[in-house]
Queue: 2 jobs
Job 1
Amino acid sequence: MLGWTGHILRVDLTSKTFKKESFTEEFAKTWLGGRGFAVKILFDELQPGIDPLGPENKLVVALGPISGIPAPNTGKAVVAAKSPLTGFYGDGNLGTRVTDQLRKAGYDAMIVEGKADRPTLLYIEDDKVEFLAAEPVWGKGTFATNDWIYARYGKGVGVLNIGQAGENLVRYAVIRSMEGRAGGRPGMGAVMGSKLLKAIVVKGTKPIPQADPAGMKAVGTADLKEVHRIDKDTGWSRQGTTGVLAWCDEVAALPVHNFRQTRHPESWKIDGQRLDEARVATYGCPTCTMRCGIAIHDHEGRESELDYENVGLLGSNLDVFDLAQVGSLNYLCDDYGLDTMSAGCTLGFYADAIEHGATEGDFRFGDAERAKELLGLAARREGKVGNLLADGSLRMARAFGHGSEAYAMQVKGLEVAAYNCKFIPGMALAFGVAGIGAHHREAWIITFELKLSTRDSYGPDKAAKVIELQRIRGGMFESIVACRFPWIEIGWELDHYPKYFNLVTGLDWTLDDMWKLADRIYAMLKLHYVREFPNATRKDDYPPAVWFQPDNADVDGPIAGKHLDHDKYDQLLQHYYDQRGYDRRGIPTRETLAKLGLSREAEAAAKYATLS
Ligand code: PTT
Ligand code: SF4
């Protein structure tokens, strides 16, 4: 079997043992890698109903067949586990050198299970695995932890680590890597913390098996140069992801004031142009030639790396229009290891709940200094407010009552990304049916939807577009494991990816084969969900209720008086289910599962929930 190492590293923190396990060629071809591996492994190995923060949960770090290969933007890894935020499968994707180092150590994935008896650093070097004391950095932030690790092992190693948020089991704690950014929004950092696992450090020295290494090297090296050239020509990485902020403001899609407003006259102060002007450094993931990590000096003079989601949710959503202050909030999230997006939505919800009298408190929109203190309270789970914030917006709303759940900006417990869908039905659907709760990663239909001016349509074509994008983004890119930005941002053709895949595996796949894999993954995500929530209904695939409310509509601007239509959204959702072969609850039918080769998985799920 070429293209895969054929091995998974299984580490048990309780017994301090490890095993090198083999997988079959059939497993590799059915699940490919990354998210594909993770959905299957966690489905087979986790009992529904387990405590996501208990030792029985497992953390999977999974790579793909092109991970670590010199080709455009292959320095990404998938981290997955049962989510403490949403209560079912959760994952994330982050740039890290663990990608190539773990593959060079001889593994396509690792599974971490059990719980250590003391703060632990897992050190992996080829066939060696060591369980080392991490007390010197327990209680420390991710920057200090990373410095400590680099000082001991050098900068060539791959590192995943957590900050205080992960240690204190904040439900939206992320995993950080200084060789990329952060990943695992639905609390993958808390899963590490629950296992007393402070960091994973990886070093590998073996070659990655490939069918045609010379051919891959020639194609990959040329393509890396070409991607660099196109990026320079188009100028995309000047502003990177933050280039979209000014557009969101223009088309009334920016989150402002906990998504109550869609535009703001001061938004220009935190847009991509201002970020580029304030740039003090540029960072990128391994094997990337269009590096988009733009760092500025924050209010306290520290370097802070900003993306659109971070600026939209910690900036405009909180009415903070001072870029340096947004940088500070972002820096704190990075250091504590909090997901910037859930943190921004949860703080926004808190300020909104106070404003609407659902609770009492001293936090107001625009108060960046208090927001900084609150992030600290959340990361340390300090006091009543810290504990409430640490549990995310849905649990907080349930604690407050007074109808506040309507404006907790989340789906299935995961907070939404920075696209205000008051009147953007397709993107609202994309959040509703995203595989792990609201995430823009899987179907970023908003640009297609608004650039074609089909904003007020709820037709079957929108459902079809969401499925097409899910296949590309949530399926192929998450399983072959590569950054999707060359495709989405600079127009790098999708055909390149089966070509890379075929060069390393010796297979003859087309994009259609990738879409079949993607559909299998999406069905599995739903099986994960229904196994945990047997009474699931189509309402679970609805976006936040506030977007449907007429009294929340904009009073002026391009979408004045408009809001999502409940019945039409339900029809759009039905188009999605029909096209996917799901029943009226949004669960794949037995027939659909059989077509996808998932009859055994259907039987396993049917023990817990009724399948049609
Ligand atoms: C992703 C989510 C995003 S998506 C952002 S900004 W974005 C936030 N970044 C955070 C951060 O930074 N610090 C922090 N403490 N929390 C953060 N949470 C948020 O996490 C990211 C880039 C970006 S920047 C995006 S869109 C693309 N995402 C990709 C993806 O998901 N898959 C893929 N195959 N390629 C992608 N390329 C791009 O990667 P999650 P990263 Mg992240 C400081 O993890 O859980 O998936 O949520 O991955 O290495 O940080 O790169 O405007
Ligand atoms: Fe990382 Fe940005 Fe490069 Fe993608 S484009 S690999 S997110 S630096």
Job 2
Amino acid sequence: MNPRVVSFEPFPDQRPGTSGLRKATRVFQQPHYLAAFVQAIFIARPPTAPLVVGGDGRYYNAEALQIIIRIAAANGCPRLVVGRDGVLSTPAASNLIRSRQALGGIILSASHNPAGPEGDFGVKFNGPNGAPSAEDVTEAIFEVSRTLRSYTILDAHPVDLSVTGTQRLGSTEIEVVDPAADYADLMERLFDFDRIRELLRAPGFSMAFDAMHAVTGPYAVELFERRLGAPGVVMRGAVLPDFGGGHPDPDPTHAAELMARMNGLHPPQFGAASDGDGDRHMIVGPRFVVSPSDSLAVLAANAEHIPGYRGRLSGVARSMPTSRALDVVAEHLGVPCYETPTGWKFFGSLLDAGRITLCGEESAGAGSDHVREKDGLWAVLYWLNIMAARGQSVEAVVRDHWARFGRHGYARLDYEGLDTERAAALMDGLRGRLASFPTGVLVGRRVESADDFAYVDPVSGARSERQGVRLLLADGGRIVFRLSGTGTSGATLRVYLEQYSRAPQAADRSAHDLVAELEGVAAHAAMFESFGLSRPSHRV
Ligand code: VG1
Ligand code: CO
């Protein structure tokens, strides 16, 4: 078993985006592509301490893990902690990094993007605090990758990852762990499991959790079926390499089977779903969908009901495009509310410094200082704990929230598959017109201010520019434009629409209805017509 040096031509395109390096599976399967990126990580961050590795179980997960293990061993990594069968959800990996005091972790996932030979694959590198690496680290890795011409790999047989226990590969110890055990223990420390168990047993109460054939299946079975004693609540629980051919994005379009049940004749009282790597969540009641931004605000407003959070909210944070429903709650609680660029990597330093306890994004991600990633099943348990403590349905919890704090009607429009240069030109055009917006009226709406969001991390001082164009309207409306950083072909323009209202009638209108007028304002502001944009390809 000797380390072997393998040479190749450098890859110029390994710059990580919003959430790690995400590419078409075929790109990752090219000879040396994955190995080169992993070697670049180990040059930027030599693996001198234990590393956690695992992934969401998608196509190429198993092969990629074997490559990573052999490169880690050849680069002198003393110990690897690997999820059984190579499976670890993103939040569970974050937890393991923290509890094992590891140097960091490599998480294989393209999150909610479809899997398979025609789908996507991804690699994320997290640091010792369990959080996605900050931009200085991802940039350092990218810089190394641009000129890297060789990697070192151990010539060895594949390691058996199907049984828990410790084995050796060269001088590296490999510990295979039950992916769900530590994580489920952590959940039991945060939430009132006795109360949730009672709720799940109450006559007439039932729930359904859609694991979308992705990574949360085994976690959900452990939590809901074993520890909370509710057999049969997990739908599509087997982890399949192609996610059952589906698109594991927990929104009403992609969780169609769950939605059919929730809108059917005898719906469960509580429905939930998570994404490919287990960090997003969707919450649904009978014929009632909770908007992700509202979910985050509800979690913050109800912290007093949750054992792990009662009396200890130091502050909260949301990504810039996320609705300002959270800000209203923070003001009421008298705690600071930070506004960060899109992507979880910006929350890490605020969480580490104790400035915030809870945070989240409009893209169905919420989390807290229990790990350093967003966490889907955590959010589902949090909701169950709120319902158990308040004795209310999903819909009643949300309607109460609106009555107290007002409602932030919200929608996101995605324009996918755009030509990269034209999309960049559209954004540049908006940037060029920023100063002109507040001086005039756009389709009958007055713009109070317009800017291109820039962020200075209050802890590290790191500055991030050009994070999205935002138009604040005088009547409580807001429009945000930004380009996605997780796509793998062409460009995706995201347009975020938000309208605040304290009028009681707002509760009875649909979210899309509340922001419908803003769609025209957005189209006008960004000159959609001259870019040939008409209908979004996806609405959430
Ligand atoms: C999207 C979401 C962002 C999220 C990111 C990763 O990024 O908008 O909020 O953090 O995905 O989530 P973008 O750049 O495409 O808008 V996940 O669950 O895909 O790791
Ligand atoms: Co995800």
